[in-house]
Amino acid sequence: MSLKREVQKEIRKDKNKHINSLCEELEGYNNTGNMRKLFGAVKSLSKKFTAQLTVIKDSNGSLLTEKDQVLARWKEYCADLYTNKEDHAQIIYSEREPPPLKSEVAWALGRTANDKSPGSDGVPVELFKEAGESGINMMHKICTDVWNTGKWPTEWMESIFITIPKKETGRNVQITGLLP
């Protein structure tokens, strides 16, 4: 029993040494004004310890604990997902889901944010919202047609990216992106 106490005592000493060295490091960061490292060190000091468990079973069911073995097993598992095509061919889809309801389209349209840039068609979302029931009917018809045919309009697959910096830095502001 005395050996256990001795080991715990040494562990506490080592932990205190480690915490004291971290505190000295914190003081150094604070004195030099390096706030990024200061807050990072405070975060690492104050967060709770969570042990990482890197154990996985191999294809035979035995446990793997070594990091390289675990990584190799994940690689093998992912490769098997994409090479065993016959497993996927046996899935039978008995029935299709029903097309979207008019109430779902109305709900989605109502939840869409105002004052956003229009898409490549140039139509703002507020126009559909102000159209009321007829706008919901039009959007429902479009969504139902896409659902039934499975063909997406090419405009729905376009994205427009415009980069705008947070602050003016004295340099010219450049707006780039994919425009139709």
Short description:
By secondary structure, this protein is mainly α.
Termini separation (Å)? 78 Å
| Integer tally of domains | 3
If you average the pLDDT, what whole number results? 81
Outline the low-pLDDT stretches.
Answer: 173-180
* SSE-based structural type: mainly alpha
Helical content class: 40-55%
H/I helix tally: 7
Radius of gyration: 30 Å
Strand tally: 2
* Strand/helix succession: HHEEHHHHH
List keywords for this structure.
2 strands; mainly alpha; 7 helices; two-stranded antiparallel sheet; 180 residues; single chain; disordered C terminus
What does this structure look like?
β1 and β2 (63-64) form a beta hairpin. It is built from seven helices and two strands, in the order ααββααααα. α1 (2-32) runs antiparallel to α2 and α5 (102-111) crosses α7. The protein has three domains: 2-46; 56-89; 96-180, no CATH class. With 180 residues, it is an all-alpha fold. Helices cover 54% and strands 2% of the residues. It has a two-stranded antiparallel sheet with strand order 1-2.
